[in-house]
Amino acid sequence: MTNIDWKKVEEWDNKYILRTFATQDEYQTVPIESTEGDYLIMPDGTRLLDLFNQLYCVNTGQKNKKINDAIKDALDRYGFVWDAYTSDYKAKAAKLIMEDILGEESWPGKIRFVSTGSEANETALFIARLFKNRPNVITREHAYHGWTRGASSLTRVKGTRSGITETDPNTEQRHVPGQQDGVVAVAPSPNCLRCPLSHKYGSCHDETGELACVTYTRRMIENQGPEQVAAMVTEITQGAGSIHPPKEYIPQIRKMTKELDILWIVDEVLTGFGRTGEWFNYQHYGVEPDIVTMAKGLSSSTIPAGAVVVNKEIAEFMDQFRWETVSTYSGHPIAMAAVCANIEYMIEENLVAKAKETGKYFKKRLLELQDKHPTVGPVNGAGVLWMVELVKDAKNTPFIKLDRNTTHEADPSTFPINIINAKALEKGVLIGGFVPNTLRIGTSLDISKEDIDKAIDALDYALDHLDKLAEQKQKTLV
Ligand SMILES: Cc1ncc(COP(=O)(O)O)c(/C=N/[C@H](C)c2ccccc2)c1O
């Protein structure tokens, strides 16, 4: 154990660092001394099995030896060169993505590296608007695409729009003035569980089989005038929003964007690099995007990295111009060394196929919990990304009525995800979510069956407690 004065660490942390998602008074320091595989290790040696996978971004496991060794080797050669210069690492990272991963697909043209997912989505928005020379963009309810200006104009998970709330629900909340400006229209999310049509009619397909949310999206774009719309931006599975779409949704959205001649930007920041059992989540649906953004699993987060891949037509267009944009750390050689090692490790260990197999085991174990616990509603997901709806009753009534439109002025101790989190922590398992009624589970691609069983046992223990609370209809679960 390293000889760190953790009392001093806690003092400095409390005294100097701006908080998020908690007031200073609410804030609790959670010291992590080191990490390993799917575990976080606290200074006293407590090992926490992390089903958040941090922010669903440590795909090849914490402290991956191949990645760490690659970073050490790169540090023997580099400090830093900016994007105007070429390192072997940046060129090889591009080759691995464009040939080794995407080589069998006809659409990819070129790639640009940045440092985060928000920057990847900012870059995609610039490129789409430049290429189509149109201002408008379509996002969706419950979308999360980042916190920076353009990316946050797409973000609609209400509790992640960088606003501030006090702890008293009757006080003022404040969203960043002007942040939601900008020519962004909001289409419905394919959230069938909460769709009024599915509730009333059991399904929402029209006579052609088109989903109502797709029909409504089309009408929105037609109302704006497709000639004003540069692109529609979608996560295939909404991560922060915790929504896995019905299987026909993505192919119908892709067909619609082609018919209306608008670009389709797929945000694979959270779902990319094997998380759902394919290299990229869109590949489950037999469709090809125009632009894909990525981060998190791109490097598995030991060092931050993001990227944007554009189709051939856009690449040829961009190549004709002097593009006046710069991001200091774009293609950072040490980050690119981590990207190369991460991808090579995934290929050598066949981790994408492993995640697909692991997904079958996750589904089996989660459905066992659904059979046993009345508070477990629909279970959706794939690979090592799963959403578990927590419900009051057999009608799937949410505990927190505002559901995905809840912000943080509500008392977080009433959120079922936090009740589960506190009970599972008693078993050394970190599990929770972001929207109040939905657990979101994420792990490394090569999590062991033993650790999945440990997670399920802890979740089973926590759900027993939630079942009792729901049964007693206690005040805390209004
Ligand atoms: C689909 C998607 N696109 C872009 C970004 C922005 O990437 P960044 O942070 O700029 O590197 C993110 C980040 N996820 C955040 C951290 C998250 C995840 C789960 C719950 C709540 C929030 C993302 O999920």
**Multimeric organization:** single chain
Could you say what the CATH topology of the largest domain is called?
A: Aspartate Aminotransferase, domain 2
Contiguous uncertain segments of 5+ residues: none
What general outline do the C-alpha atoms trace?
A: globular
Name the beta content range: 5-15%
> What ligands are attached or bound here?
ligand 6DF
Estimate the mean pLDDT confidence: 94
The H/E string reads HEEEHHHEHEHEEEHHEHEEEHHHEEHEEH
User: From the alpha-carbon coordinates, what is the Rg to the nearest angstrom?
Assistant: 22 Å
Tell me the count of domains: 2
What's the CATH architecture of the largest domain?
3-Layer(aba) Sandwich
Instruction: Report the strand count.
Output: 16
- What is the strand arrangement across the widest sheet? 4-12-11-10-9-5-8
Structure description:
Pfam families: Aminotran_3. This is Aspartate aminotransferase family protein. The chain is of the alpha/beta class and 478 residues long. The protein has two domains: 184 residues, Aspartate Aminotransferase, domain 1, CATH 3.90.1150; 285 residues, Aspartate Aminotransferase, domain 2 (3-Layer(aba) Sandwich), CATH 3.40.640.10. Helices cover 36% and strands 15% of the residues. It is built from 14 helices and 16 strands. The strands form four sheets. A seven-stranded mixed β-sheet has the order 4-12-11-10-9-5-8, sandwiched between helices. A hairpin with a 5-residue loop joins strand 2 and strand 3. Helix 4 runs parallel beside helix 11 and helix 13 crosses helix 14. The longest helix has 24 residues. Ligand 6DF binds next to helix 2 and helix 5.
